[in-house]
Structures are given as structure tokens and as C-alpha cells.
Amino acid sequence: FDRVLKCGADKVSVNSGAIADPSIIAAAAKRYGDQCVVLSMDVKRVDGTFRLFAKGGREDTGIDAMEWAVRGVGDGAGEIVLNSIDTDGVKGGFDLEMLDALAARVHVPIVASGGAGSREHFAELFTHSGVDAGLAASIFHTKQVDIKDLKRFLRGRGVEMRL
């Protein structure tokens, strides 16, 4: 945390490191403030529950993801990035069901990850309650969606947007 923040970052995201040592969340929040601590979660449906995965989504921890989120926020995480393994890379839209389940349990900003495939997916996400931000990578890298066009599209749909 210290090194990353001293390099100019405003926030630090923790995932597998926090699973290995959950005390890192509280320690970082105490030292740097809750606003700096972002709990990143890779989550997949397993037997009808939302399960937390580690190591880039390769290792099932057996931990209930929603309980983990509540614990993380209780320990001082001021924001959550939720990556749905089920929708990541599929480009069929964000996992609104999973995001709704999380929003019902925690009251910190939620960043949605996994599933973006079109401008319409972002419009659906940003007009959906309980989600504060969304992220994507491959659709921008492969030029399937142009960021400037996306911003204009979202603004035209009533989403507050800097151009």
C-alpha cells in the first residue's frame, strides 16, 4: 500500500492478498483511510451460491462471496470491484443479478467488471441502481468500442459523463 500510494495512486486494490491475510484490509484502512482500500473480488456461481475465487479466478476458496464482501467492508474496505467470472470475456453484458446481490449487502461504491461487449451494456449498467462504476478492457483494446464514442453515447442516454 505504502509504495503504491507514494507513487501517486489514490487507491489500492487487494484480492488474493487479502484472502491470504484478511488483516491487511483493516491495517491499510487504519493507516491510509477506508477510501484508499478497494476490495477486488473474482466471483463465480457454484451450486447456486456466489463463491469467491483467488489467483485470478483459478482457485475456488470455498468462501461465500457476499459474506466476504460484508467482512471486507466491516474491516475497512471503502469500495468493491466485483468481477463476475461467469460473464468475464463473454461480452454478453454485466452480471446485474450478482451486482444486485452485492448492493443489497454492502453500502460502499461498487465497480462492475466482466461482461462488457457493447455501448448498450454500459448504458444498462449505468442506469441500473446500486452500481457506481464499470470497467472493461478487451473491447477497448480491440477497438470494438471507442471510448469517446461510448462517452457521447452514454451522455445521450442521460448518464452523467465528462467528454
Percent strand: 15-25%
Find the structural class using helix and strand composition.
Answer: alpha/beta
Mean pLDDT figure: 96
Q: Count the strands?
A: 7
So what's the overall shape?
A: globular
- Gyration radius (Cα, Å) is 16 Å
Low-confidence stretches: none
| Main sheet record | 7 strands, mixed
**Which architecture per CATH?**
Alpha-Beta Barrel
Write out the CATH superfamily name. Aldolase class I
CATH topology: TIM Barrel
Q: What order do the helices and strands follow?
A: HEHHEEEHEHEHEHH
Percent of residues in helices comes to 25-40%
If helices are DSSP runs of H or I spanning 4 or more residues, what is the number of helices?
8
CATH class: Alpha Beta
Account of the 3D structure:
By secondary structure, this protein is α/β, with parallel strands linked by helices. It is built from 8 helices and 7 strands. Strands 1, 2, 3, 4, 5, 6 and 7 form a 7-stranded mixed beta sheet that branches. A hairpin with a 2-residue loop joins β2 (37-46) and β3. The two termini are 31 Å apart.
How is the topology of this model organized?
Layout: H1 2-6, E1 12-14, H2 16-20, H3 23-32, E2 37-46, E3 49-54, E4 59-64, H4 65-75, E5 79-84, H5 96-103, E6 110-113, H6 119-126, E7 133-135, H7 138-141, H8 147-156
Parallel strand pairs: 1-2, 2-5, 5-6, 6-7
Antiparallel strand pairs: 2-3, 3-4
Features:
alpha/beta; 23% strand; TIM Barrel; single chain; globular; 8 helices; 37% helix; seven-stranded mixed beta sheet; 163 residues
